[in-house]
Each structure stands twice: as C-alpha cells, then as structure tokens.
Amino acid sequence: MAQPPFPALTPSATDFTKGGALYIAAAATELPPAMPIEDAIRDGLYTRESADIAEYTGVTIADESSSILDLASAAALSATARSDVPAADIRSLLFVSVFPFTHPRLYNLPAAIAEAVRAPSAFTTQISNASCAAGVDALVMAGHRLLLTEDPAALVVAAELWRMPHIDRFDCNPNFVFADGASAVVLGRAGGYARLLSGATLTDPTLSGLHVEVPSDRTPVDVSARAGAFFQRTGRDTAEVHGRLEAGLRATIDSSLALAGVSLDDVACVVLPAVGRTFLQRYLDMLKIPVSRTTWDYFATTSHIGPGDQFSALEYLAESGRCNRGDVILLIGEGVGFQFSVAVLEVQ
Asked: Cα separation of 142 and 199, whole Å?
C-alpha cells in the first residue's frame, strides 16, 4: 500500500513583541585555547586538502581533564555575572548538547548547571537531538516559556566536547572542523544587549535519512559516507534535495523576518553556523549577502562548536561593538534532521 503524501512543511513562527518585551540580557562564551590549523596539518591530524576547503585558522580544543560540565558552568556563570538579572530570577534553564559520548551517564547536567549559578529553576531540561540548530531552537523555546509564564528570566547554555574514539573532529566532513567550547545567553524582561523580536523553526523529516549511520572504515563518524548512502538507497536527485534544503531554510527565515517587520536588507549582521568557508558560500549565494555581513571573521578562529555557535557570536558582536543601537541581527541555525531555526534580534 502506497504511503500518503508527506504533509506540507510550514514553519512555526512566534512574534515575541507580544506579551511584553524579551531581551538578551547577556551572552558569554567559554573557549579552550585554539590550536593553529597549521599545527594540526603539521602533526598529521588534518589534511591540507580539507584545510583549503574550510579555511579555518584555528580550532579550540579542551584538554583531557576538562569536562562538559566545566565548560557549560563557566559559560553560564559568565553570562549571569554580565547580566543585571539576579540568579533567583532564572526560573528556566535549557541545556543544549548534541554529542552524548562525553556526558556523564545518568546525570542531570542542566540541574547541575542551575546549581552552579545558584538558580532555583522551576524548569530545567536538556536538548540533545544531534542538530546544530538546537541552540537557536532552545532560545526560541525559552522565549515561549517566558511568554506563557510570569518567570522573570531564562538561561540557555550550549556546550560540546568532541573526542576520539567517538569522533575525529578533523575528519568528520571536509566542510567543517568540530571545536570544543560552551556559550550561554540570559533571556529576561528588564532590558539588555538586544531585544528578541521573533523566532521560527522548521523540520523536514523527509531528509532525516541524510545522516543515518552507515559502516565506514575511514573515520568513526563519516558524514560524507552517510549522505552518499542516502542518495544511493533512495535514488533521490541531489538537486532536488538541495532545493528542499534551501526552501526549508528560506521559509524559516522569511517567516521570522515577516513577524519582526523587517527584510533581509534591514539586517546588519547575519549569524550563520560556523561551517567552513566553502560551505558558507552556499548560504551567502542563497541569501545574496557578502561575507562581511556575517561573523565568519570570528568563526574562522574557533571552528564549529556546534549549537553554541550563535550565542558565541553574540558575545563577539557585543564585545566588539560591531553592531549599533537599532541594528538587526539574524541568528540562523541548521542541522541534521533536517532542522532550521531562526531568531531576529534588535540591538538596544
């Protein structure tokens, strides 16, 4: 019996200007020291061919004694210290981490982070769906919590450690290198760096098979082999799949911008995932924007820390003074699933 047609895909979008203003009160990042990419090539960890594709200059790598909780708690403490939000006002804490192998087993990490920042959270949860869109997803979810409750503030934390034998950060896919690090944002009602105007999310489940695990002798996690197996197994056309990816992302961006009452031309800075320079060009061509309107100059020095990229970029923008009052920032997350997540901010 033939399956019915898959339901049409429509982003879920929220206007966060209704129900009281919400603000990014502070953003913070905890990054280990960066290894120069040239050192990784010299030491045989990374190939020159992949380095020329990605064009990173450094990758942040934690020492073996560092734990995921160490990184996450440090970023959370820094974010709360920078904000004017008392820890007692943080009633929701969302922790995002997509790579489970460096997590302590049967341990409540978000509760431990809440204890570290002394936040009596009524709601703590972890998002771990292997999607690098999950950081922006969590920010949108935190906004929903504040719209529906009287909670004064929420804390969103993203952290990753990428380690062998579970994954080779340098040889997962030639388009990016995974970096260790954590970042956090405090979302509150009493003002801050930027106001949250809108958010939109979308998942295209018909593309979940792009990342189904397949046997590979090349590396512990072989993203390229997974995609190749998907096309061979399904017989789907590459152009059709790329078209779905572009359509899903464009629809999510358009939904969020429309609710915020702005166009892409109004956006001062587009924060894209910290993928390598060649893959980044796909986004630039689709959006018709120059690389100068992104945070690539910063991401090139860190590599891809996963779902924490966007919060890390927010700290960079705030600290560098690159954006001025009234500027619009577009946060874009994309990841396996296939997931798209977007948030629109206005600098205060």
From this structure: 11
Burial of 268 (0-12, 13-18, 19+ CB in 10 A): middle
Report residue 194: phi and psi, to 5°. -150, 145
**Is 338 in contact with 207 (CB distance < 8 Å)?**
yes
pLDDT tens-digit series, residues 245-265:
999 999 999 999 999 999 999
- Mention every residue, 6+ apart, whose C-beta is less than 8 A from residue 42: none
Contact at 8 Å (CB) between 40 and 202?
no
Contact predicate 189/146, CB 8 Å: yes
CB 153 within 8 A of CB 187: yes
Angle CA 339–344–346, to nearest 5: 160
Strand partners, 343: 199, 331
| pLDDT tens-place string over residues 136-171 | 999 999 999 999 999 999 999 999 999 999 999 999
- Give which of 329, 257, 19 is closest to 146, Cα–Cα: 19
